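Budget justification aside, the reviewers requested a transparent look at the raw inputs and outputs of the sequence design task funded under Objective 1. We therefore reproduce one unedited record. The lines immediately below are the structure tokens for a 191-residue chain.
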């Protein structure tokens, strides 16, 4: 008899939790919490049935954990405004991307048309680099000296701009987050 009391108690608690109305989640990109039985899109959540109050799911925002940027040596007419360095402290990710675009100076010697190189690095709160940029991709079949020339150009372009002047909010939000930049040399080079 006494063994049945905890079971009845658990059943009454679970039916009381199911009786509460479903909350409408006002967070962007959120739909409904996921269920194995659902056939519609859902937002994964990490809530526990033992937590009181509404469940707020974890959301993957469009930027994600990896901030990605493509920088061209010769920007298109539509993108020229994005390559202007802001004249104020950097307060948004768009300001950061504009500052990084304005820093790029492609190499003049040992350059190769169509060369692409990607690097990954992080900033600290003060706008300095946390370690040197790490090479993650280079156009296949390119000689080692050409890769070295472009990597040196990336490093010198970043060093010329540092330290970047972040506002307190942006510096705190960006500190330690990886930033991946793809450099594309789309210049018409004479052979």
């Amino acid at each position: 008899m006494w063994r049945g009391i905890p079971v009845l108690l658990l059943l009454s608690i679970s039916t009381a939790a199911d009786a509460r109305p479903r909350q409408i989640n006002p967070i962007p990109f959120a739909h409904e919490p996921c269920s194995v039985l659902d056939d519609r899109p859902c937002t994964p959540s990490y809530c526990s049935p033992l937590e009181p109050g509404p469940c707020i799911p974890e959301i993957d925002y469009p930027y994600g954990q990896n901030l990605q940027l493509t920088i061209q040596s010769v920007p298109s007419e539509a993108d020229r405004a994005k390559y202007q360095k802001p004249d104020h402290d950097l307060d948004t990710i768009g300001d950061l991307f504009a500052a990084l675009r304005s820093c790029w100076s492609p190499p003049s010697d040992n350059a190769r048309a169509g060369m692409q190189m990607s690097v990954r690095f992080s900033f600290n709160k003060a706008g300095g680099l946390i370690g040197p940029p790490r090479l993650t991709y280079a156009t296949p079949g390119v000689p080692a000296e050409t890769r070295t020339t472009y990597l040196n150009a990336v490093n010198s372009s970043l060093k010329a701009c540092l330290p970047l002047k972040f506002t307190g909010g942006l510096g705190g939000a960006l500190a330690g987050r990886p930033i991946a930049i793809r450099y594309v040399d789309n210049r018409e080079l004479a052979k």
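Strands lie at 67-72, 116-121, 134-138, 179-184. The chain has four helices and four strands. Computational costs for records of this kind are itemized in the attached budget.
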